[in-house]
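Sharing in case it's useful to others searching the archive later.

Someone asked me privately for the predicted structure of DMSO/TMAO reductase YedYZ molybdopterin-dependent catalytic subunit, so I'm posting the question and my answer publicly. Question first, with the sequence:
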Amino acid sequence: MEAVNDFPFWLRAQHLLNFVLIGMLIRSGIEILSSLPRLWWRQDCAPGTEWLKFTKRELPKEEGVYTSLMDEKAVHPLLSLPGRENIGLGRHWHGLSVMLWVLNGVIYVILLFATGLWRRIIPTSWDVFPEAWDSLKTYLSFDVPDISHFQPYDALQMLGYTFVIFILAPFMMLTGVAMAPAVRGRFPRFVKMLGGHQGARSLHFIGMIMMAGFIVMHVSLVFLVHRDRNLVNMVFGGAQIEVSNARAAQAMVIMVAVIVAVAVFWIALSYWSLADRVRAQRFTAGFTEIGRKIFLNWLRPQGAKKTAYTDDDISEFHWTNGLPPTEEESELWVQARERNWAGLTITVRDDINDVEKQLTIDDLKALPRHSYIATHTCMQGWSATSRWTGVRLTDLMSVLGPRPEGARYLLAESYGLAQKMYDNRPREPFYAAIDLDTMEEEESIMAYERNGHEIEDYLGAPARLRVESNHGYKHVKWVSRVMWVHDYADYGDGRGGTREDSALQAFNGRI
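And my answer, the predicted structure tokens:
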């Protein structure tokens, strides 16, 4: 018989919750990665420059012939959350899990210091390093350190816990938020310090591998090193609990049952999401919007103050998501392209009062000109840096006069169609709505030039929306109409845009 160190209920409960949330994070992370199963260090994601890929598909070298949606891979719901090419829901589940994981971690650290249990995890002597080295050599020899080395953890465990809790976890948070357009627009030097969007994405993946490796090692050692003691501690806690064969067997049954129950819960989340994807989108996007309102919505791009990016940062290659309209999709756009856009107009409309004006591309270019360098990011993961030139949306809409009473959103429509609809109905004209605060940002423009020349057809010629604080699904290409609206719920499926309708993304594209 042996008395063991105290493991209070809050500590055991938070470990269990952390296990559940880490699993959700990794599974939803797999879904996100499967939407573009390649990793780069280069910001332009040029074909053939990946440092790691999870697909055998070879990318064409020519720009504008291969979309990122074509590269998406379907993953089984047993492995990912939710699986089956549902990047929108995968991103929502990832965001929800992050919020709960961070909250759980903050509470854990507070209680750790409030109860004095931090001394069991954080080393207070340099002796921990030679002791950890001795433990590592013991493990590598397939032996087990004596029980006397565990108080309740040995030196190697202490260093591992300290690294994961106070270094790896914050690293994952920082690299995660660095991929948010709102953060990049407000703190461009921070993102550039991490290697830009692709650096942050690759580092985040490496961190995930390290976290997963730690978990596998941690759980394995629970069952391989002084198993009876570990299981009794983790299940029953309490300094007065005695380790006996019967108690250890009881703890083993409970532990295995809990692990099985958590795995069933992970898989059930996937199938619950797939059973009614709109319901899952409402729940997850509604929950994660709380985090966006608290941490992101107040972040505004630096605009003219931004000096982090220069012409030297402009990308050599630019991906696309969506191909130019065909004659079947928009005969008007195709014919105008053949005439170098002569006769093509963009409608500027007040949909509240039924007032509108038609602007040609020359009319657009006659308005005040605005230019800046920005990194475009797709919610699937690719990026490219360009100099965009056009007219600010505030100047564009001023051609109708003062903002009409009751206008709450700006909605842009495209000559092009959605690539696909999640429910397989006929493809619909692409559109996106943004709130007025976003519309008024300095880097929200109707662009007609990229890198000093007219925008390429595949990137949205002759004019496209640029909303740099949001991901690319808000940047409508081949714009046909821009209008004041009272409520985006009156358009499309009422979710605020085609990618919200067709891929169940969030209306708020700031992360």
